[in-house]
Amino acid sequence: MTTENFPKYKDHYSYVDKLKRLGWNVCYLLLFRPFGLRCFDGWRNMVLRLFGAKIGKGTIIHASVKVWAPWNLTTGIRTSVGPHVLLYNPGNITLGSKACISQYAFICTASHDYTSILRPLIWKDIQIDDHVWVAAKAFVGPGVHIGTYAVVGATASVYKDVESYAIVGGNPAKFIKRRELIDVK
């Protein structure tokens, strides 16, 4: 196939979508990112809410977190998103209550259709349930559902659903053992 008859890439984002992203990126740089102290947790949550995010009470999202589209983000209560986490969410990301996403984790709802010569962007929603811990530098791919109380080990790459109470690790992530919680009095 020559470049003359090579199909043209089709952008599926409207000008309204692009303007929303531009507005968010400006506000991110001016109103979200500079306010890194813990006393500004509520401020950052408010900025995210102004752009359509549904943020639960007591949630902490660090100033260095990069959210691609706040309008596609939902969190439960008392959820923590650690430093330098990347939430790439052309699709929806839902984080349950008391979930913990550790530093440098990458939660990614999108990829490219490798079956097409144009490789268009495709996305699937990600659901991370209550009390889940996604450890440092872990990757969670498009369409993944992580069940309640599951643990994704550091640097793990998750491409398939993770059952509740499972501890997974590696690339690709594999079941390691069942999480057994001990009540501390």
Walk me through this protein's architecture:
With 185 residues, the chain is an alpha/beta fold. It has one domain: UDP N-Acetylglucosamine Acyltransferase, domain 1, CATH 2.160.10. It is built from two helices and 18 strands. A hairpin with a 4-residue loop joins β17 (166-169) and β18 (174-178). The chain is flat, with a radius of gyration of 18 Å. It starts with 14 loop residues before the first helix and ends in a 7-residue tail after the last strand.
Summarize the structure.
The protein has 185 residues and is of the alpha/beta class.
First CA to last CA: what distance?
A: 69 Å
Task: Give the CATH superfamily.
Answer: Hexapeptide repeat proteins
Q: Per CATH, what is the topology?
A: UDP N-Acetylglucosamine Acyltransferase, domain 1
Could you give the order of the helices and strands? HHEEEEEEEEEEEEEEEEEE
- The CATH class, by name, is Mainly Beta
Radius of gyration: 18 Å
Low-confidence segments: none
Beta-strand share of residues = 25-35%
> How are the strands ordered across the major sheet?
1-4-7-12-15-17-18
Tally of helical runs: 2
CATH architecture heading:
3 Solenoid
Arithmetic mean pLDDT: 94
Number of domains: 1
How much helix is in the residues? 10-25%
